[in-house]
UniProtKB/TrEMBL annotation:
Keywords: Glycosyltransferase, Membrane, Transferase, Transmembrane, Transmembrane helix. This is Glycosyl hydrolase family 13 catalytic domain-containing protein. One of its GO terms (biological process) is carbohydrate metabolic process. The keyword Nucleus does not apply. The lineage of its organism: unclassified sequences, metagenomes, ecological metagenomes. The keyword Transmembrane helix applies. It comes from marine sediment metagenome.
Amino acid sequence: IDKDTDLSSVTRARTHPLLTKFKRKGEDIYLWTTYNLDQIDINFANENVLLEIIDVILFYASKRARVIRLDAIGHIWKKLGTSCINLKETHYIIQLIRAILNEIFPDTLLLTQTNVPHKENVSYFGNGYNEVQLVYQFALSLLVLHTFYTGDASRLLEWASRLKNVSDKTAFFNVLATHDGLGVVPVKAILTDKEITDIADNIKERGGYISYKTAEDGVKKPYEMNITYYSAIADSKNTEELNIKKFIASQAIILSLLGIPGIYIHSLFGTENYLEG
């Protein structure tokens, strides 16, 4: 891609430049790097690349993979002049993968990892039968923290009351933590900017870090909050016994909601922050 291409409309997940310089046959070239400077995006518009990806997915399915996570799937299709996220071509590719799996490995489930607002997140169910069977409920991470920090469950209850399965072949995958940070984007339409800022302040007080992205207006805004969920829930002013009870209560919430609960291994062990590691 020409380094002077106007990419201002592209939705960003990080603050570094979208194009990164590499060498090819001794010449400088600029490649698309959505997430990291050393992580080059795959060109799904190349049919050979698409076929190779499908072959990899079929390999895992043949080895009895029960669930295949489509990581950062919303960013896979690039079209200049657009946001380059959640484009219709992305949904077409998912529909193709689902159709192939339905014929060969119908018991293999697809799970999308999309750090986007709830409405866009559930769009990856398609019509309930033609795209993925599972989507992460990333909004839960900060909604539950907001509930514990404020002592007010109204936001969480209001949001949860509107949840419905798209079909008998789909389900929400309810998580509070993963190997990634706690996403801010999924709660953008649920919590106010001040409520999100208050959560971020609590995270920093508990030893966490905030990752930022560059918004369309050029301003850096919180994108992920990086902290173990136990450390996010625990309060140094409380006894360990009370902190453990609060943490178990937080996990009980995702066990009781519509969908499939997913307990992250560090939540299973109650891991605290380890910043030196």
